[in-house]
Amino acid sequence: MVLIIVSACEDKTPPVPPVNVQDTIPTRDDNMALGNPSNAATDPSSPSNYLMVKPQFVLSYNSSKGEANWASWHLSRAWKGTAARQDDFRKDPELPSNFFSPSSTSYSGSGYDRGHLCPSDDRDGSIADNSATFVMTNMIPQAPNLNRISWLALEDYGRKLVTQGNEMYIVAGGYGTGGVASSTSSLVNSINNGQIEVPAYTWKILVVLPVGKNDISRITADTRVIAVAMPNRFDVNDLSWGNYRVSVDALEQSTGLDFLSEVPVGIQAAIESKVDTGPTN
Ligand code: MN
Ligand code: MN
């Protein structure tokens, strides 16, 4: 009977929307999509808050501190590849000539590592991308146990989340003054004849999303935000990185910066007041 076929055609069950494969392919997104924490501008007359927009990351350089106020970048599988670590530490050729420009040897003999803000391993999609992370404007003096153990552990955890289908927006920097590089050294406020400040803490914020499009619109009060402040001390690794989790609000107090300013204020308030309690490995 023809009527049976007509009846099936009148079924009002809504169709299952087709999965758009394009929505789940990782992309390289705006490194500063979540905001410019210090309203930095690429203006040579503002040497303490000088915006540098690079294809691989964005930062605000502070010539009086000899390091960045913050660096901001996006991480997804689209940034990842097999390029080898380039280790070509060098002056940043894009700094205005009237600024102090740290060189590859400015940290030599200080006891502090040239610690990446945007990590080498977050940018191995090409040799050029990896090399870009080795400009000295992307470095901050870190006690070796911070750079090589505690800070690295959080970097590795972020990359693990990326392999599990996530993308993320990351901001990092330092605040306060004074580190203790080793068990036999004393508190040091600066290196390189006072030209490079040694921060008391290095901090980082990761905003984690499942891979997708229109990222800001997908951030909700339940989005995972991991914020940490790790002491720049030789004994930092006595505790695992998860013990250094703080709220974004606490980091805004400590740094004077405004993070996640492109996120709607209500959601911003919710995600900035919480301290992450999720897994740490
Ligand atoms: Mn995205
Ligand atoms: Mn904020």
Estimate percent helicity. Answer: 10-25%
**CATH-level-2 architecture:** 3-Layer(aba) Sandwich
Secondary structure tally: strands: 11
Structural class call reads: alpha+beta
Query: Which cofactors or ions or other ligands sit in this model?
Result: manganese (II) ion
Shape: globular
- CATH uppermost class: Alpha Beta
Q: Profile the largest sheet.
A: 7 strands, antiparallel
Distance between the termini: 62 Å
Which whole number gives the mean pLDDT? 95
Work out the radius of gyration.
22 Å
What would you note in describing this structure?
The protein is α+β, with helices and mostly antiparallel strands. 20% of the residues lie in helices and 21% in strands. It has helices spanning 2-9, 127-132, 144-163, 215-218, 248-255, 265-273; strands at residues 50-53, 58-62, 67-75, 113-116, 139-142, 166-175, 190-191, 196-197, 201-210, 224-231, 245-246. A 7-stranded antiparallel β-sheet has the order 1-2-3-6-9-10-11. Strands 4-5 form a two-stranded antiparallel sheet. The protein has a two-stranded antiparallel ribbon with strand order 7-8. The longest helix is centred in the middle third of the chain and has 20 residues, at 144-163. It is globular and about 75 Å long. The N and C termini lie far apart (62 Å). The structure holds manganese (II) ion (2 copies). One manganese (II) ion (MN) binds at residues 27, 29, 167, 212-213, 215.
